[in-house]
Amino acid sequence: MSSLAIAFILTVLGVVSAALAASHYNCDGPLGSNLPQASFQSSSQSSTSNVPHFSKLNRRDGAGGWSPQVTDRQPWLQLDLRDRMEVTAVATQGRFGSSDWVSGYLLLFSDTGLAWKQYRQEDGVGRFVGNVNADGVVHHKLSHSIRSRFLRFVPLDWNPSGWVGLRVEVYGCAYKSYVADFDGRSSLLYRFNQKSMSTVKDVISLRFKSRQAEGVLLHGEGQRGDYITLELHRGRLALYLNLDDTRLRFSSGRVAVTLGSLLDDQHWHSVLIERFNKQVNLTVDTHTQHFRTKGEGDSLEVDYELSFGGIPLPGKPGTFLRKNFHGCIENLYYNGINIIDLAKRRKPQIYSVGNVTFSCSQPQLVSTTFLSSSSSFLSLPATPSASGGFTVRFQFRTWNPDGLLLSTQLSLEPQRLELQISNSRLRLTHHTSAQQKEEVSTGHRVNDGLWHTVSLGSRSLQVTMTLDSEPSSTIELADHMDAGDNLYFGGCPSLSPADPGCENPMLAFQGCMRLISINSQPMDLNLVQQGRLGKYKELQFDTCGIHDRCLPNFCEHGGQCSQSWNTFYCDCSGTGYAGATCHNSIYEASCEAYRLTGSSSGYFSIDPDGSGPLGATQVFCNMTEDKVWTVVTHNSTDPVRVQGSTLQKPYVMKFNYSASPEQLMALVAGSEQCQQEVVYSCRKSRLFNTWDGSPLSWWVDQGGERRTYWGGFLPGVQQCSCSLEENCMDMNYFCNCDANTDSWANDTGVLSYKEHLPVSEIVIGDTNRTGSEALYRIGPLRCYGDKSVWNAASFYQESSYLHFPTLQAELSADISFYFKTSVPSGVFLEDLGLKDFIRVELSSPSVVTFSFDVGNGGVVLAVKSHVPLNDRQWHYVRAERNVKEASLQVDQLPLRFLEAPSDGHLRLRLNSQLFVGGTAARQRGFMGCIRTLNINGMTFNLEERAKMTPGVSAGCPGHCSGSSSLCHNRGRCIEKNSGYVCDCSQSAYGGPSCKEEVSVSFDRESSVTYTFQEPFSVMQNRSSQASRVYRESTRARENMAFSFMTTQSPAMLLTVSTFSQQYIAVILALNGSLQIWYRLHVYRKPDVFSPSPSSLADGRLHRIRIHRQGKDVYLQIDQDIHRKYTLSSDAELILIRSLTLGKVIGGENFDEEVMQAGSKGFIGCLSSVQFNHVAPLKAALLNRGSSLVSVRGHLVESNCGVLADSTTSHPLSDQAAKANKDKEQQGNDTRHDSAVIGGVVTAVVFITLCVVVVMTRFLYQHRQAQRDASIKEKEHRHNLETAYRREAAYQAEPVYRAESAYRTELHLHDSATLRDNREYYI
């Protein structure tokens, strides 16, 4: 029987037994209505008309309920049920006819009325919601029942216009208990009737409460190696279980299954062990762990006896192998046998060792909780010691690594002692003066949540500190001294006049203390609570409120949980995931995603289901072809020769892939196409029986089904590739091997029906005849594409929506999608519960909101864009909610997040369908397109659901209808069958829409040099489209654009040099002003323009655009209008050699001021540099190592351009002033030039006539050549990718390297808008 089936049987048995028990078990009767007056107690009462026994539900006795004194700092109402009862529900009411009621409270329970424990609901919430008026009844059914005698209601909040008023009732039934008390030196032995007991199924149940963190509860073992041990270890329950494995019996490496925490809290805990064969369920309180036990057998064989409470050593009465249990056990059942009942009736099967009694002794260890890490403290007077000096002793437990435990002023001022937890160690500090101190430390991880005992004493000239059983640490004193008048435990009061030297060093103590004694006198904290002893603030008496926030472990994917008093943390190291709860994969989902980040071919880890349960797997990403192939290898990729196999004894090879079957299924399902090559050669070895067509060899698919097709045929067709291609060597057969010839034949094919891939096994059965053999090789699995990326739906009715099954997202949910719309608002998705909900919507044209409620009240996260989001462009949204925090991301806007309350509800409980594109009310529906909807790693098939939904259509038409807005900064929108891509090869920008800043931080020694090839040779190897662009840029001469940010001057921004010693330089002068240098003639002075005397080295981002046409140079700085300057010559740059950004080394032809700036280099940020069709900065980043790009010094890719741009503003008033000034200047220039216009017009007309005559003949001669070029250009517009693949024919030429960056750029963004680009969007 499979382990899955056994686990299912265990689950069904548990459910059935629970249902049967419930049908015969009624435990909801009122328990408080018949209690006597003495059973009701309180912290105080406001009057004799508000005494505690007037607090019965629906009664109007006295003043209609209980109310405490107004001065009561910690009011509570307590019920004594007279015996231990099982409580299943509670109800509250306000004081009758008044404005007094409780709106929130805690529920505590206790067996003794001294040591209390806070009741927590299923998800750890301790707060109960109370009343909203005086007479309404609020009823709470407890998620797990309480078995206790005393209950205490502790009001937290009440009507702000009134006071605390309370009437209560509790519901339940009587509770029967068989109890045994173990004193740490005793045990019960249950002896079998035969020598050994062998069981296949075991059910062991018990309840216990312990005074210690260590102790054996149950033990049994057999001679063949079987054993079972249940013991407390460091406050957790450990189960050791082994079946028939002698290797583990005496091994020190025995592994325990541990569960539970803080089980030494002197309160009852339930344990249930269910075993069937090797499958085991271990339940402690409300937490269950399933596991499979060690060993070879299925039965547990125990010799002679089972021991409870300890492990007695054979032959030595009263001697035990391990530390015994010290506490009480009740209702102990072993396979239906009531062990304690047998012991109590002194049955012969039970042997008692030591002193076992049958009533539970009542402990007197009462704790106090320090609630605040900033303001809690307890001040107690230092009683005088008869022997001089002082001693302090107490116990503490906490999760916090830092906190003040004790502070006291010594008799010799200003000396004082401080005892604190620092970095998880205990540290004692003796302050001898304001500047001098002595310190000693001890312990390790004292913040482990366990009780620790610390003693501090002053005697003679020493102060001694002792922690638990560790050696003492001592500080030597110069003089004998006593403690001051007060001892401060847990913290210091703020601005205390009694002790101004008491200050919290870092944090106050947050945790529990008990057994406080000063000079050997125990401190009665009841007197403190009553105000009769000492002072306190932010304390909770009679209970230890410590709570294990790592149980259960909310860290996903194997993350390690650690905690402080208020929260928990997840260590995601080595898991492959990140985030507050290790929810988000750190790996890309596909090879396509890695290519978009600029990666080249190689081995990568991919996570096909993102944040889903599957982990990452390593694959090979082949990015050298037009398609990006994901290659998954297996254990047998070399050719294998097969001989001697028959159908009865076939050859079988199973393939183990580098990914798990589940990962392979996810990879295949998410790919557009997959294939796997099967190379099969044969000699006298058939694939099919020639008589009846039955298969002699076959392969097994991913689902374990036998397959008999050997090529790209559809399933069920027993044929090979040669039949498809109609070239089989014998046309009477569908496979070459079936011809059964003595010579080698080949039936190699490619399997491409991806639902059957990969091949998991191959079976060959006809190689046993003389001369018969086969040779096969199964290639790796190869997949490409992502069919979910453009899975889109269009919503064109406000009342329309798509519905899917209820969202399974109790503890965590990440939702991501793209949308585009023109409407101002609409709901993207919504799912509802009884009270809980989750919703993502466009609430206004520029605001996306993420709202939800898990029971703590509605939460709304909003991200506001500085531009409208209903602009018909694709926008990315990612919303995440987990038990730690919630976050919302929209495009590149700043991430918004909100931390979850530390003690709030955790689970999002939904029960309706998931509505996409609308709501259940059919109002506020979304109109537009949604694509790539992914929730918790699962992509939703919007297109399939849209086909059957009115008001919604599959896909999203018109991707490039607004290409000018989709692709920015000279990027070109290219229509694809299932979307579009932006060709950014002519842009200095990157990203899916060619609007990502490409920024680099430079230091003084940094430089980037882009080396040009011969421009005409380059253009000959480009497509016709590229040639046309180059011709346009030739007529425009030069176009330059870039952004920069610096505080340095002088500085070199950009230089362009030629082989003919010409150059262009853009620099910042000594005063920080911008200067543009044009040297177009070697023997002439350069033209220099200084557009503005103001300094641009001001630490702000400045955008520069320079456009030259002939003699005219147009300049734009930031948002200013273009300024026009005139050069002394219209000469062209001949044979451009290189472009350099930053520091210039050499450059003998540069002028002195340019050389000075070049030697200083550039310190700051350069962003989105464009020179004609070249983007040198982007080329440097994409082609590191290329011979075209030379990088010197330290360059760091940065987002400084984006960040600076987001904080840079330009007042409209300043722009208007500049515009008016330039208009005046242009008016003057116009009047000055009007005198020469007539002559210029005459010359232009004459020259034009001459040119027309010459060009007419020239155009006639080349008409045919132009027609051919036009045809090629049209072909290119139909398929740009064909033109780029044509570049591969020129790989042998050096000029190819000059265009590699741009061909790569197109590939880089070929699917850029088709994925969740974490780098770009998040």
UniProtKB/TrEMBL annotation:
It is found in: Membrane. It holds the Pfam family F5_F8_type_C. Residues 582-634 form the Fibrinogen C-terminal domain. Residues 1219-1230 have a biased composition (Basic and acidic residues). Residues 22-173 form the F5/8 type C domain. Residues 1-18 form the signal peptide. Residues 37-71, 1211-1230 are annotated as: Disordered. Residues 37-49 have a biased composition (Low complexity). Keywords: Disulfide bond, EGF-like domain, Membrane, Repeat, Signal, Transmembrane, Transmembrane helix. Coiled coil: none annotated. Residues 546-583, 957-995 form the EGF-like domain. Disulfide bonds join C929-C956. It is a single-pass type I membrane protein. SMART domains: EGF, FA58C, LamG. The chain crosses the membrane at residues 1235-1260. One of its GO terms (cellular component) is membrane. Residues 179-360, 367-544, 791-956, 1018-1200 form the Laminin G domain. Belongs to the neurexin family. PANTHER family: CONTACTIN-ASSOCIATED PROTEIN-LIKE 5 ISOFORM X1, PIKACHURIN-LIKE PROTEIN. This is Contactin associated protein-like 5a.
